[in-house]
Specification:
This protein is an all-alpha fold and 171 residues long. It is built from seven helices and no strands. The chain is elongated, with a radius of gyration of 21 Å. 16% of the residues are buried.
Length: 171
């Protein structure tokens, strides 16, 4: 189980390190749009749509990386007061009650959004008409990465419970 959790962590770490620097590309596009407005007197036709989609994709794709690094909202103040066993139980119950329905909806509806967008050839409004299905596909990819990271977290909670149980049996 340790090996599976470590492999999942490695995947999300690598993916996060690849995606994180792309914020610089988005910044350059925004700067181009600002310069276009200032020097040419009008914004570009494509920059706003591209940056809006890229920022959304960046945010979603970094979610699993954030979950891996515990950069998510959690009630750590109360959780840290508990024993390791109770922390593990709380993690398992929390993921069962809150995460399972969330990830099921994200995967199901993300796929439906992507499929409908792809089959209809959905595009943005305006002169450039960028395709929308890639960004909706990112919803499914992000959900898969988050699910993988959740599996690693649950595996670690199970490992902790097993270790605590073995310590209790030895005592």
């Amino acid at each position: 189980m340790h090996a599976i959790a470590k492999a999942i962590d490695a995947v999300n770490e690598l993916f996060g390190r690849i995606i994180a620097p792309l914020i610089a590309v988005m910044t350059l596009i925004v700067l181009y749009d600002i310069a276009s407005r200032f020097f040419l007197g009008r914004p570009s036709d494509w920059a706003f749509d591209v940056t809006k989609m890229l920022f959304g994709a960046h945010f979603m794709l970094m979610a699993a990386y954030g979950l891996k690094h515990h950069a998510h909202v959690e009630v750590d103040v109360l959780k840290r007061l508990l024993s390791l066993k109770r922390q593990a139980v709380l993690t398992l119950v929390g993921y069962l009650i809150f995460f399972v329905p969330f990830i099921w909806m994200m995967l199901k509806y993300g796929w439906l959004f992507f499929d409908r967008s792809f089959s209809r050839g959905e595009t943005t409004y305006g002169m450039v008409a960028l395709p929308v299905y890639p960004i909706k596909g990112v919803i499914v990819l992000a959900a898969a990465l988050i699910l993988l990271q959740a599996i690693a977290i649950v595996l670690r909670a199970v490992i902790t419970l097993r270790e605590e149980r073995s310590h209790e049996l030895e005592s």
